[in-house]
Each structure stands twice: as C-alpha cells, then as structure tokens.
TrEMBL record:
Protein name: STM4013/SEN3800 family hydrolase
UniProt xrefs under Pfam families: Sulfatase
GO terms for MF: hydrolase activity
Superkingdom of the organism of origin: Bacteria
Organism: Streptomyces milbemycinicus
Amino acid sequence: MNEVVGSHDLLLVTLDTLRYDVAAELAAEGRIPHLASRLPGGVWDERHAPGSFTYASHQAMFAGFLPTPATPGPHRRLFAARFAGSETTAEGTFVFDTPDLVSGLAAAGYHTVCVGGVGFFNKRGALGSVLPGLFQESHWEPEFGVPSPTSFEAQVACAEKVIAGLSPDRRLFLFVNVSALHQPNWFHLPGATREAGDSRATHAAALEYVDRHIGRLFSALGDRGPGFAIVCSDHGTAYGDDGYTGHRLGHEVVWTVPYTHFFLEAS
C-alpha cells in the first residue's frame, strides 16, 4: 500500500449489513455481474467483521482494522496506525501517525469525502455526526437513507458530482456507506409487501439493485486516473436464523462478511 497511497485515488465502499452467504450465492448464480467481474475468480473473500453493527465496525475500519480473513492468522493489514507491538503491521502496510485512517490520508495529501447512508452518517445529531466528522467533506440527504427505494442511485449521483468537481491533480479518498441492504429492504423485491416485511430474499434483491448501479461509481473514479477500491460489508444481519433477527449480536451470519479489493482503471 505504500506504493498505492499517494499515486492512486482510494475508494472504500461498505455494503452495510450484507451477509456473506447471500453475497456468495448471488455471485455464483450470476446475479451480480458488475460486482462479480471485480472478484478474483468471481468469488468473494470470506472475512470476519471487526464489529457487529455499523458504528462499532466503522470505528474499527477507520482505525485500519478492515474485515479479517476467516482463516488462522496473523494477517497483514493494508493500513495501520503506528502502534508498538502490532503483529499485523508489515513492510507493505501504510502506517499513519494520526488516530484514524481518514486523517492519515488527509495528511498524505488526500481530499477525504464521505457519502453517508445509514443513520450513523446522517449528521442529524451528535452521534450521527461522529463518523462523517472525520472527513473534510461529507454528504447526507434523506434520499440516501434506508427507507429510500432509490438510495444508491442518489448516492452514486452525489459521488459523481464530487469526483467531477475535484482537481485532477488532487488525490481523493472517497467513502460510500451503502444503505440499500439494511432493513427495510422489502421494496427491492418485485411482489413483496410492507406487511410481509424483509427477508433473506429481499436482502438479495437489494444487492442486485446495488449491482445495477455500482458500475457508474467504479467508472467515475477509474476515469480520473489510477485507483484502488475496497468493497466489503461492515457486518451481516439475521432473518430468523436460529431464532435471531437483526444484528448487534454474536451469530455467524452477523460476523461473517464478504470482502474484495482491486485496482480501478479508465473505462
């Protein structure tokens, strides 16, 4: 990452609440072609989330603790705060001297931008201002939030405007928190109803919706010049699994998440 930071734009996309099993199934079934085309061999990397809900997980990721490979480690990290005794900081790790990755990249000359999604990014109160407050520029509108059936399209349009307005010689760190997977998501499945509520099937339909629009985001950033993208979930969620519903709990479907990273080039 020391060869990437400074020469490449950086994109971090969190597909908020996306379960690994659903992501893996849809990739295998050819239902998310834009995302699958970016996966090595068309397969997501299976990882463990650093937290069981949005706030905790993003605090960890912004400190350099991205989801960890679901195999025995230690595993070298891409980014890390300077910390004596760290067993996952290696020669290729980008080490920053600030409390978080966002300010570390700003110190390295990046313009840092947040396009928020779920409530922890809505800036409507003190708690919803903590995470977007890490960035030099942050955006949130009600249309970006979980109740909106067109949330991701609106987020991508916002990101495209940000990218178009930035000087070509300024490096960009763009973070997008995608809210479409989060409950409520029933409206993404044709024929589903509010009364029937959300399900694993509507969760999958929400991922298909995201896939239909995410290519625009990759193209907008790739057309600026070399880029490096990380796409992952921050945690999963339960739909009646073993009697559990939701997240902020210790079930396997909450802790196991999909992850990938790849380089972006001009389309």
